[in-house]
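QA checklist item 7 of 12: single-chain prediction sanity check.
[x] sequence parsed
[x] length recorded as 599
[x] structure emitted
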Amino acid sequence: MAEVYLNGRYAGTVQDAAAFAQRFVEHRRKGAMPPKVNVHLNKTGDIEVETGGGRLVRPLIVVREGKPMLTEKHVKQLQKGELNWEQLVKEGVIEYLDAGEEENALVAFTEEELSPKHTHLEITPLAIIGLCTSLVPYANFSPPARVNMGSKNQKQAVGLYVSNFHLRTDMDVNILNTPQTPLVRSIMHSISEYDKHPAGQNVVVAVMSYQGYNMEDAIVLNKSSLERGFGRSTYFRPLKAEELRYSGGLVDEIGIPDKDVKGYKSEHDYRYLEQDGIIFPEAQVKEGDIAIGKTSPPRFLSSIDQYNLSLDTRRESSVGLSHGEEGIVDLILLTENAEGNRLVKVKVRDTRLPEIGDKFTSRHGQKGVVGLIVPEADMPFSASGIIPDIIFSPHGIPSRMTISHLIEMLAGKVGALKADFVDGTIFSAEPEDRLRQELLRLGFRENGVEMMYNGHSGEAYQAKIFIGDMYYLKLKHMVANKIHARARGPIQLLTRQPTEGRAKEGGLRLGEMEKDTFVAHGASLLLKERFDSDRTVIPICEECGMVAVHDAYRNKSYCVTCGEGAQIDFIEISYAFKLIMDEMKSLCIYPKLVLKRKW
């Protein structure tokens, strides 16, 4: 007797579990049951039937006695359009398996592998990986971890994310100005219509060292390639202001603030605003410049103030460019929000040329930052006069074993010389031997290496350099969005410590581990300097150990508990410590400070 569970709940018992599961599957294949209901005979001998939504199911070709149910006749009918996917599922040629039912299946990878034991066949070997992973060419020549990394990197690439980007006000958007479709492509590039939203460019890559500037995964870029448009992108960022309504009939007002407004900046900050208080298109703006002028009613209104006629003390609440931002005003949108309040959006664009520190990657998880930008005259060149766009470090290959990176360079070279695309689909790509023969036929060395010359001296390098074409992606992680430094600046109201985050001109936090490194170096003065961001001097009573009072006007100190005769000492502590003592007092805990003389 075996128990049957439906979506995890007990449903009854059956005599023969294996026969029940077999009968269940046959009924489903005949169309007597929905195609996405699955049955699983588990290790305890019980039956689990799953019908719930949200399960991951995948289609497989049904195999009977070592032969697939999908025949040549079916394929011809599909090609003619006489048959479709749903009909194949209804006929029981293709069925959907979930993770549970797959435990009882033996799936063949290719038709040649089929044996009488097999129950299913993959529709295509490509189906075992996801959409982004299937865009990685020659992926079966690299370790799974690297292929996975290459898949993730493609999601961060700068490209054309949507064709109507100029009408949208999305946050933090990058558009590649001249995207290209890859020379080495997989079948998924055609299926997903990758040509409509490409996210990279074809470049000439040489695998060699360049004066140490491309060590540790860094890459060296050709300055002329950047000037011709390689990696040039546009960054868009919207600024938003709305006229909010407050209680008592008070509202925000979008317009040029008057000089008597509390917090008025300067005429220079408002110089780009037109009569309606909104900036004009194509204005060149930098940090601190106001894009939308706005004033708001006073923040704290007491009951007396509400009836007061002097409500002219409005406060300045304009929207401007944050710290470190600059660009050109691209689009101004005037509309209303859901509540019917006036809403103004200003989109700022900024042209981004690749600079030192920007992140680039191939489709094989070989990511790296720009270490140096070299004038074309100083770049190495081949005997045929080809100058690489990127110099890639040879040390990135041996330990990572990304052979697909090297094969793509070879295939890209063939594709560029032949003026044709090369198929790099996983498990069914153009064989390497054929690429080598084709390269030889085109008048190049079959192993992809060439004689190259030093750009400085013109001397030939002793070693032959591996050089080819490949598809490189610029990632959204750019120095311009991340660079951050601070000396003095704003502090938080509560803790008196520096504010947090780059946009708020925040401090750079020195954590526990960073402190340990300075301790190990014996850098005591640096530590002292770093740990006094919220230094404060407070009076302490020696008798009761509580915080005393210092009257700066009369230059007198006294203790609230012990009176005026108590010995008061000034000590230097962190304001955060003073704050926690105050919080302890609110819990009726007595935080007594016992002072000792330094001498």
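[x] summary fact logged: The chain has 14 helices and 34 strands.
[ ] second reviewer sign-off
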